[in-house]
Amino acid sequence: MRTFAFCLLADILGASIAEARQAGTLTVTDVAPAPDDTLTSVPSTITITLSAAVDVATANASALRLTRAGADGVLGTADDVTVVPSAVSVVVGNQIEISLAGVQLVNDVYRITMSGTDLSIPDCVG
User: Fold this and answer.
1) Could you give the residue ranges of the DSSP H alpha helices within the chain?
2) Cα distance between residue 120 and residue 27, in whole Å
3) Which of 2, 42, 99, 119 sits CB 3.0–4.6 Å from 63 for a disulfide?
4) Which regions in the chain score pLDDT beneath 70?
5) Can you give the residue range of the structural domain that contains 65?
6) What is the pLDDT of residues 29-51, one digit of tens each?
7) What is the CATH number of the domain that holds 99?
8) Any residues with CB less than 8 A from the CB of 79 and at least 6 apart, and which?
9) Contact 98, 64 (CB under 8 A)
């Protein structure tokens, strides 16, 4: 049986994103599959729902990174492997979809990292 465990690390940085977060306007409200889920099959997509709309032009592979733990099975170490999704897009103003169509995923632990320096929120850019 193959298992896939997903977790989410929201690394929201950058002036406009930090201001929005302090104002309570940017939080991750849902992720599917859910963080810490153990899956028996590869999902075709990962959907992240935020509490505010994001700029379609900035929701891309630079703003959202998918990595897996690598040989040691521990995230955040030197052997982590970057996984390139087939697409990253905004499907609803506040939902980002990471497509895994055609992406070969191995049995491992995966992390999604969101970078606020690359991801902007409309009406909060200063």
Assistant:
1) 15-22
2) 13
3) 119
4) 1-26, 115-126
5) 4-115
6) 888 888 777 888 888 999 988 87
7) 2.60.40.1220
8) 69, 70, 71, 72
9) yes
CB count within 10 Å of CB 65 equals 20
Look at residue 25 in the predicted model and tell me its pLDDT: 54
Q: Which residue has the tokens 């939902």?
A: 95
H/E element, 86: none
How many residues comprise the chain? 126
Alpha carbon distance 101, 38 (integer Å): 19
Q: Is residue 121 part of a domain?
A: no
Rg (CA), the chain: 14
pLDDT at 125: 34
Number of domains composing the chain: 1
Dig out the tokens for 82 from the structure: 């970057």
Q: What SS3 class is residue 46?
A: strand
What global pTM score does this model have? 0.73
- Where are the alpha helices (H) located in 10-72, listed in sequence order? 15-22
Contact call for residues 119 and 64 (beta carbons, < 8 A): yes
User: Look-up: residue for tokens 């506040």?
Assistant: 94
Q: Note whether 7 and 114 are within 8 A (CB).
A: no
